[in-house]
Write a structure and sequence with these properties.
Blueprint lengths: L3 E3 L2 H11 L18 E2 L19 E2 L8 E2 L9 E11 L2 H5 L3 E3 L6 E14 L3 E2 H4 L3 E5 L4 E3 L21 E2 L4 E11 L4 E6 L8 E4 L3
Parallel strand pairs: 3-14
Antiparallel strand pairs: 1-6, 2-10, 4-5, 5-7, 7-12, 8-11, 9-10, 9-13, 13-14
Length: 210
């Protein structure tokens, strides 16, 4: 298995889980502790046939707030929140080298992409930050779509992108500014950040430059 590893063995196991899902097309919602995945399904993003209204707005500028999203988690079902991506930046090989992660020799080189967002809890039961950003996806300029990297134990270190407390809960009226890291193949750049809404709806999209 091709994996990203780290000096702390238990963290290496967490990263194995995160990358083992590569190749899934990310159609349905996933629990925030399930890891991260990437896919090459530009056809399953804005170009494919979602069943939503053709008049529905799905493209936004960075800094614009998403429509209200609903939780479908069993514990918080019906709670609502919004996501406001504010900045997207592709990192460097140096960022990767200094992250505390090291690459399996058989794996392709990766670089990080950083997405800064504001999560705003609107109504319903308190929600964990990890549930509110669970459907964020980065799409690259070559059409690859990737979910956020999640380290179950320990943490990777990124410049100006501190790890968030995914278990922290927000109550209605509370908001939190976060930074989320994604890994994409070296040589590709972030083209957009998306909110995945399953197979039946087109994702919401924010271009990487405002």
């Amino acid at each position: 298995m091709r994996t990203w590893t780290r000096a702390v063995p238990v963290t290496a196991g967490a990263l194995v889980l995160a990358l083992a899902l590569t190749g899934c097309d990310g159609g349905g919602k996933k629990g925030h502790k399930s890891g991260s995945d990437s896919d090459h399904s530009s056809s399953s993003s804005s170009s494919s046939g979602g069943s939503g209204s053709s008049k529905e707005k799905t493209s936004y500028r960075l800094g614009q707030t998403s429509p209200t999203q609903k939780s479908d988690d069993d514990e918080t079902k019906g709670a609502t929140f919004t996501v406001t991506p504010t900045k997207v930046q592709t990192g460097t090989k140096a960022d990767m080298a200094n992250s505390g992660l090291k690459k399996d020799e058989k794996d392709e080189p990766k670089v990080p992409v950083y997405v800064w967002s504001t999560l705003n809890h609107k109504s319903g039961k308190p929600m964990e930050l990890g549930d509110m950003d669970d459907d964020l996806v980065v799409r690259t300029d070559q059409g690859q779509r990737t979910r956020a990297l999640i380290v179950i134990m320990g943490e990777a270190k990124w410049p100006n992108c501190p790890a968030m407390d995914r278990d922290k809960k927000l109550s209605p009226g509370q908001s939190e500014k976060i930074c989320t890291a994604f890994l994409v193949p070296e040589g590709q750049k972030a083209e957009a950040v998306e909110i995945n809404r399953g197979y039946s709806k087109k994702p919401l999209e924010w271009r990487a430059t405002s």
